[in-house]
Amino acid sequence: MRSPSACRRNLGRTHVRQDPDMTDTITPAGTAPAPLQFAVTKNLAAKTTAQREQILQDPGFGTHFTDHMVDVCWSERGGWHRPRVQPYGPISLDPAAAVLHYAQEIFEGIKAYRHADGGVYTFRPQENARRLQRSARRMALPELPEEYFLQSLRELIAVDGAWVPSAPDQSLYLRPFMFAKEAFLGVRPAKKVAYYVIASPAASYFAGGVKPVKIWLSQDYQRAAKGGTGAAKTGGNYAASLLPQSEAYAQGCDQVVFLDSDGNIEELGGMNILFVKKDGTLVTPSSDSILDGITRNSILDLARDRGLTVETRAVSLAEWRDGVASGDITEVFACGTAAVVTPIGALKGAGFEDEQPTGELALSLREELTDIQYGRREDTRGWLYRLDD
Ligand SMILES: *Cc1c(COP(=O)(O)O)cnc(C)c1O
Question: What is the three-class DSSP state of 50?
Fold first, then answer.
């Protein structure tokens, strides 16, 4: 049984199969699937312009949400279907929905930026689309075609574009996510899945200026394991990081840095880490449990274009601590979509606390990157993608 909207998207293509929901599954590899036909239901209780403006005065991060959300269903039999834009609100789930028991879930994080000409752009969304597909493979979820991912962002901006702030360094944080909604307590990949996109206006992370963070080295806990799910953007990795994060707070630190299964530096659990050497070389850890950050990769590209050497390789704790002690390491910073670049001011672990050197490179790369994202500097690499035309 399908709602009428389930059939709406494939009008004109139904000559191939009687069941319009089957058309995605027979799209030949390498060709773009036909666009989804979203059914749009406007939120009658949408915030007024005045209410929205008031929220955008001080949006914080992740606490306010726009008026609508995107919702697309997937089933083993029907593929992607019933694409909708509907009022933002609670999701109704069967208590046996697999995600609630076995954490079969993935997500993305990407921002929309308002440029001076009023246009709304996002940054390298194709990379997020591909990463969502890689996360899906690891978590045995269906791969959302890249075109559908891009379309889902555009559909949401089409109704909620006014929520993209125009204040300097504010943005609209977009959160696409996918989860197993099939009601079944047996353990196997779910045959019914939901994909959503919600959006939340985000303040400039460092409204009062960029402030170096103090980080706690987690030696008792890891966030991910070799062969595990560390490289997938999945909720379970975050669940595993919460207890060590509480430990960090108790130690007077802001964030945690994790070690991988080989005892090398991994990442902060929500941000990747980079080291700057005295000669300007940028080093970032490589390990199969690291989440491949788009901010990190973009920063490495900017650094290469500046003529700096970039190394992606294992970094031991000893290399870090000795490098700081000897002056061979001149800066350490973390990066990710939410905070962009965060200098690390101190590393604390069991029985030691190392002050970290601070320099100019992290902030200058941050400025170059955000200038591109906000349209203040020419985008020579084709990184920007317009969402509102
Ligand atoms: C999302 C995420 C990052 C940062 O990735 P970006 O693409 O730069 O936002 C780093 N580590 C983890 C664990 C993440 O989930």
Answer: helix
